[in-house]
Specification:
- The chain is of the alpha/beta class.
- It has a single domain (2-178), classed as Rossmann fold.
- It is built from 5 helices and 7 strands, in the order E-H-E-H-E-E-H-E-H-H-E-E.
- It has helices spanning 21-27, 40-47, 85-95, 115-131, 149-159; strands at 11-15, 32-37, 55-58, 71-77, 96-107, 164-168, 172-178.
- Strand 6 (164-168) and strand 7 (172-178) form a beta hairpin.
- The longest helix has 17 residues, at 115-131.
- The radius of gyration is 17 Å and the shape is globular.
């Protein structure tokens, strides 16, 4: 996720920021960071952390009055499956400046043909529980995710042409997309 940050990024939005773990990490690399979430208890935890120069917003990013093309980076971890994926990706892309990046780590439901990934996920999940390395948060859960990997990839491909989509263990995938720079504009990011 952090590797997706454009080098000259000055602003970032963390959609579904929860307790602000990624939001605070983004702030170490980006000057102005906004975290938005609909879950008040999670935001209360985020606001109680020592990093005070992050802006936390209680609300739904789909209708919060952010100006279009405001952010150099829009990120989302484990929250896209709580939304209507197509419109949420469209909204995220509309909030990016030309040349900005969208980075998502999402959760998807597996099908019978995804059995090897599902088994790997169960093995890793069991190991983490036995090793007690799991991190618990106060965020609400949606399980199983409503869309499969294939469905999520298809929607992402139609909304974000050229996006890089990768599957990972623990029922996760990553999606990275760079918004095209305007014609004739100098590319500010690498």
């Amino acid at each position: 996720m952090l590797a997706a940050i454009p080098k000259a990024a000055a602003s970032a939005l963390d959609v579904g920021c929860g307790e602000g773990l990624l939001t605070r990490e983004l702030r170490r690399r980006v000057r102005h960071v906004v975290g938005i979430d609909r879950h008040e208890p999670s935001l209360a935890v985020a606001r109680s952390q020592p990093q005070t120069d992050v802006t936390y917003v209680l609300g739904d990013f789909m209708n919060h009055p952010f100006e279009p093309e405001t952010f150099d980076l829009v990120s989302s971890v484990a929250s896209l499956h709580h939304m209507d994926v197509g419109p949420a990706l469209e909204r995220m892309s509309s909030l990016l400046r030309p040349g900005g990046r969208l980075a998502v780590v999402g959760l998807a439901r597996h099908r019978a043909s995804d059995l090897p990934y599902g088994l790997a996920g169960h093995v890793v999940d069991r190991y983490l529980k036995l090793a007690r390395t799991e991190w618990e948060d106060s965020a609400p859960r949606v399980w199983p995710p409503p869309m499969t990997y294939r469905e999520t990839r298809r929607v992402a491909g139609s909304v974000l042409p050229g996006a890089t989509y990768r599957r990972h263990v623990l029922w996760r995938y990553s999606l990275v997309w760079a918004k095209p720079a305007r014609a004739g504009a100098r590319r500010a990011y690498s």
